[in-house]
Amino acid sequence: MKTLFKKLLSVCSILFISFALTACGSNSPSDVAKKYVEAIYAGDVDTIKDLVYLSEKDKNSPGADEAIKGKILMLVSEAKSKAEKKGGVDKVTVADTPVSSDEEFVKIKVSVKFKNGDEKNSSVSLRKTEDGWKVK
Predict the structure, then answer these.
(1) Arithmetic mean of pLDDT, 122-128
(2) What's CA 132's distance to the chain center, in Å?
């Protein structure tokens, strides 16, 4: 009975750890760049704000939060308008960019395919922080 309980406990522990790791998602530079671009076209201001790098000074300055949200809203509204004229976003893909563990800055190439067949290529600059990769 004790052996069965130990096996059951170890299986449950393994399952819990796998679900926890999967739920956290990946924070690779490519994943962050893709989430950022998708959030721009989706109009997801909160996600964009979470993905953008802010210095401690910027985070703590009075009125910074509202100013940041205002700039993000301008970016989002312009991107959404352009996407709507092209039938919306069909797919966002990122170039496979190898990043070494000691790199602090990286540029990820991103391609947005629109439903009308147009494609836009750009790059997203990222910075490694204590909280993971952030858009610079």
Answers:
(1) 96
(2) 10
**Unique residue bearing structure tokens 């993000």:** 72
How far is the CA of 78 from the CAs of 1, 81, 87, 99, in angstroms? Answer: 64, 5, 15, 31
Per DSSP bridges, beta strands 119-129 and 132-135 are antiparallel
Higher pLDDT pick, 114 / 102: 114
pLDDT at 74: 93
Whether the pLDDT of residue 26 is over 80: the answer is no
Q: Within a domain: residue 116?
A: yes
Query: How is residue 87 annotated by DSSP?
Result: T
Residue 135 β-bridge partners: 52, 126
For 118, the domain range is: 28-135
pTM: 0.76
* 32 and 128 Cβ atoms separated by less than 8 Å: no
The fraction of the chain above a pLDDT of 90, given in percent, is 60
> Quick check: is 3 in a domain?
no
